[in-house]
Specification:
Blueprint lengths: L2 H14 L11 H14 L4 H10 L11 H19 L13 H4 L22 H8 L6 H5 L5 E4 L14 E16 L2 E10 L2 E7 L5 H4 L5 E11 L2 E5 L2 E4 L11 E4 L8 H15 L9 H7 L4 H9 L4 H33 L9 H10 L6 H15 L5 E6 L5 H14 L3 E5 L3 H19 L9 E4 L3 H4 L3 E6 L5 H13 L4 E4 L13 E7 L6 H8 L6 E6 L5 H7 L4 E5 L10 E4 L5 H13 L3 E5 L7 H19 L5 E4 L5 H13 L4 E4 L12 E7 L6 H8 L10 E5 L5 H12 L3 H12 L23 H17 L9 H12 L6
Parallel strand pairs: 4-6, 9-15, 9-16, 10-13, 10-14, 12-13, 14-15, 17-22, 18-20, 18-21, 19-20, 21-22
Antiparallel strand pairs: 1-8, 2-3, 2-5, 3-4, 5-6, 5-7, 11-12
Helix pairs in contact: 1-2, 1-4, 3-4, 11-12, 12-27, 12-28, 13-16, 15-16, 24-26
The structure holds adenosine-5'-diphosphate (ADP) and magnesium ion.
The site of adenosine-5'-diphosphate has 15 residues, from α15.
Length: 815
């Protein structure tokens, strides 16, 4: 925390305590006398400096004042602090990183934060292009380009105390360095020593280093010490010559950035350091100081500096705490505002609930609803009856029977003379819904014999609807003539239920009177898509469905704009997918098993390991695995490949082939997760299973065993730590998605619930790493702010308001 910030915090506390001089132990004066000098150093505006001197904090006698005098004094100091806060004036709000940097104001750069990163020394236009691949274009982006983790090289030891096998850092003098033959390649060898002794260090394949290692230069080395012929040796350690500058590669917590091809850690560290030192001071802190104080958060520039180059683990954690708080707060505020807009903005359409329509539909189903389905249906009907538009999230495990509930709701909309829409994340899913919904509706009716492609008409609902019920499928791959025809019909109200993909929310689709919109598999759509769909009608009811069980705290945070309904029960007689966690060396057995199943006419999934840092790497790895499996393991079977880097239509194509049985095995990355229904699939092998969350694994295995045949899920970990083993063994015993989700939240934090597919939500980079406690904290603060100042109109909330609109506009596009 900077001097200014702690001053502000202390004074605020003192004021809250009624100016009784109890905010700091030993009294305020003592504190001020000590801090004044340091604060003064950070002021770089002459006028403010003069005003500061007039306050005379260095010789304050607050303790001897009367209560009134104290209050007046307080007003004076706060007045000064306020002037200080105005952008473009006064002192820089924060020192950057460690004390050392703060003391070097000459590093401060005046170019704006929106400057291209080429203003950083050493970033050429070709490097700029590489950064662009990581979405880093401006200085501001680079400040927000966070390390994924740190290597802890902070344990410095004298040479004599270095021990074999541990990561350590030592600082010494280079006595000698030369090019040497190591193994059968050229490398560099050096002798480095301090007053306690000498050690040999070698760098394989890097003979050019020898030139940089001048004799007598001071060097810091971090890495693992090994033994060679009984002597300790540093093997290819990170190194850094000690000029006067701060260490960035060694001797500290060293940041590890998520890189892309052609960017190297050492360079990137140099650039981020320079950026942090030069620019972090310009970040204006948008959090009201009251919130910062109450939640004990770092100020923004410090948090940014510390997340890159933390003083220690505790500071790294505080930096993460502050930045993830920001993400969650902005998320919450946006979501709360949206909820209010929808619910208070305009009245919705109250539906009349015709029990006869409902019982007619239910009677014709080949099953009866489960209790959970009944309950949820009632919750939905209660919403639909009201003039306040429904905003409901329906959670229910794979196979829990959400579709039938949605279908009934759509039917009721139609019976009320409104149109209904159902939006699914992929064409295959949309088609699947179209077929199922048309079938279950025509159980009642009986279909018209002849229809246009992608349309079905059901005659017997005439009784309730005064005309046949028409259902249409609207997906991107329709011919433009068909699309146009459909758009026309939708516009004229000739279609009652439209089922489709994002195609539904395109600009040229205009409903005549959309009364209900259902969104399936919520995690692929965000708040903004919901809002787009909402705008397609006159404040229609919205029902969002997801098969990802989300613990309650999480659901409230992510979907705070929605009410919750849960189907927590599966239809009777559902088999559980037999799950087994294998040892890595048992892979052959898994293959044999899979082969046998395929020979019996079944199909299988093989899921490749998750590579969180890069979808490109993940796709590459999946491709390699696909080739290996096709050539070496299953040359007699037909394999397909699915990964996130494939263009949409290609993905759809592969899924279609798999569904139709043209493929035996689908090798896939985690993209397969969304609710695809392949009844003949009976085996799922998950490679690198320990890298996935339990919820996600559960989601995967929901893809198999969808008909009467037994489904199997084989988890093959890469490396099995005791924790991972315990986690994976849970999969064998627990078959309830909610229980697994709670366990996930407990064991791994909220990360995986903020999937990478939260389109329409502000970027969540760090919130993933926090715990559920910080979720609650951010949520509480957001509610407080929202209650006190719903439109953020107060002066002190202006910066926050600006930040909020920025955060929520970034993802405003959907396609
Ligand atoms: P999800 O919730 O995953 O979307 P679906 O709605 O696709 O699940 O339902 C899965 C299967 O279960 C469908 O074939 C559906 O017809 C069937 N189903 C739904 N409800 C019941 C029930 N109460 N009893 C028996 N089968 C049901
Ligand atoms: Mg479904």
């Amino acid at each position: 925390m900077t001097g200014i910030d702690s001053l502000r915090n202390v004074l605020e506390l003192e004021r809250r305590k009624g100016c009784t001089d109890r905010a700091v132990i030993g009294g305020l004066d003592k504190y001020l006398h000590k801090q004044a000098g340091q604060i003064r150093e950070t002021i770089n505006d002459l006028q403010l400096l003069r005003a500061f001197d007039e306050l005379n904090l260095a010789r304050s006698s607050y303790g001897s004042y009367s209560l009134d005098e104290r209050k007046r004094w307080m007003t004076g100091v706060f007045g000064w602090l306020e002037k200080l806060q105005k952008p473009g004036e006064g002192c820089q709000p924060s020192a950057v990183g460690s004390q050392k940097v703060a003391a070097e104001p000459r590093q401060r750069r005046k170019e704006g934060l929106e400057s291209p990163i080429t203003v950083i020394k050493g970033i050429s236009t070709s490097i700029e292009k590489k950064f662009a691949r990581l979405n880093v274009r401006t200085v501001r982006d680079l400040l927000h380009f966070f390390p994924r983790r740190y290597v802890d090289y902070s344990q410095k030891k004298p040479v004599s105390e270095l021990v074999e096998g541990e990561e350590q850092t030592t600082i010494g003098t280079i006595w000698q360095a030369r090019v040497a033959t190591l193994g059968n390649r050229q490398g560099t060898e050096a002798i480095v020593g301090d007053e306690t002794g000498n050690i040999r260090a070698v760098w394989f394949n890097q003979p050019y280093l020898a030139k940089s290692f001048r004799t007598n230069a001071r060097i810091a080395m971090s890495g693992t010490v090994g033994l060679f012929k009984g002597h300790k040796v540093f093997e290819s350690p990170e190194w850094e010559l000690l000029a006067d500058k701060e260490l960035i590669h060694t001797g500290r917590l060293v940041p590890v950035y998520p890189l892309t091809q052609g960017l190297y850690p050492r360079q990137v560290r140099k650039w981020t350091k320079e950026t942090v030192d030069g620019f972090a001071w310009q970040l204006s802190d948008f959090l009201p100081s009251e919130v910062k104080t109450r939640c004990q958060l770092l100020d923004l520039p410090t948090a940014i500096a510390q997340i890159h180059y933390p003083d220690d683990q505790a500071m790294a954690a505080r930096a993460r705490g502050r930045l993830s708080f920001d993400e969650l707060l902005l998320l919450q505020l946006g979501v709360l505002a949206k909820k209010r807009d929808w619910q208070e903005g305009q009245p919705g359409n109250a539906f009349r609930i015709d029990q006869e329509v409902i019982s007619r539909f239910l009677q014709c189903l080949p099953f009866t609803l489960t209790n959970a389905q009944e309950r949820v249906l009632q919750e939905i009907l209660d919403d639909l009856k009201r003039t306040k538009a429904m905003s409901r999230l329906l959670q229910g495990e794979v196979g829990s029977g959400k579709t039938v509930i949605a279908t009934l709701a759509l039917l009721i909309a139609a019976a009320n003379g409104y149109q209904g829409a159902l939006m699914a994340p992929t064409e295959v899913l949309a088609e699947q819904h179209y077929t199922n919904i048309r079938n279950s509706l025509s159980q009642v009716g009986g279909r018209e014999p002849r229809c246009q492609p992608g349309e079905g008409t059901i005659r017997r609902y005439r009784k309730f609807l005064s005309k046949p019920l028409t259902i249409a499928l609207l997906i991107g791959s329709l011919s433009s003539a068909d699309k146009e025809r459909l758009h026309g019909k939708i516009n004229q109200g000739k279609v009652d239920i439209v089922i489709g993909t994002h195609a539904i929310i395109q600009k040229d689709v205009e409903f005549r009177n959309l009364g209900l919109a259902v969104i399936d598999e919520q995690h692929r759509f965000g708040v903004l898509q919901r809002s787009a769909l909402r705008q397609k009608g006159f404040n229609p009811h919205i029902l969002v469905m997801t098969a990802t069980p989300i613990p309650r705290t999480m659901a409230l945070t992510l979907y705070g704009d929605l009410d919750l309904s849960v189907i927590d029960e599966l239809p009777p007689g559902r088999q559980v997918v037999k799950t087994k966690c294998l040892e890595p060396q048992d892979r052959e057995k898994a293959y044999t098993f899979l082969h046998r199943q395929v020979s019996n006419g079944r199909q299988a999934f093989i899921i490749c390991p998750l590579i969180e840092e890069s979808e490109i790497l993940e796709a590459k790895a999946a491709t390699t695995e696909y080739q290996r499996l096709s050539r070496e393991v299953f040359p007699d079977l037909k394999l397909g490949l699915l990964h996130g880097q494939m263009p949409g239509p290609e993905k759809e194509q592969v899924m279609r082939h798999f569904r139709s049985g043209e493929l035996d095995i689908l090798v896939s990355t985690s993209v397969v997760e969304v609710g695809i229904d392949v009844p003949r699939a009976s085996v799922m092998i998950v490679e690198g299973a320990e890298r996935f969350g339990l919820s996600q694994l559960h989601q995967f295995r929901g893809r198999v065993g969808r008909d009467k045949e037994q489904g199997y899920c084989l988890l093959i970990p890469e490396k099995l730590s005791p924790e991972a083993r315990e986690r994976l063994h849970l999969m064998e015993r627990v078959h309830n998605g909610f229980a697994l989700a709670e366990k996930d939240l407990e064991l791994r934090g909220p990360g995986q619930f903020f999937g990478t597919h939260q389109s329409g939500l502000p970027d969540l980079k760090l919130a993933k790493l926090t715990d559920s406690h910080s979720l609650e904290l951010a949520r509480r603060e957001a509610m407080t702010l929202f209650q006190k100042d719903p439109d953020l109109e107060k002066a002190e909330n202006q910066p926050l308001r600006q930040q909020l609109s920025q955060a929520w506009s970034k993802d405003a596009e959907w396609s």
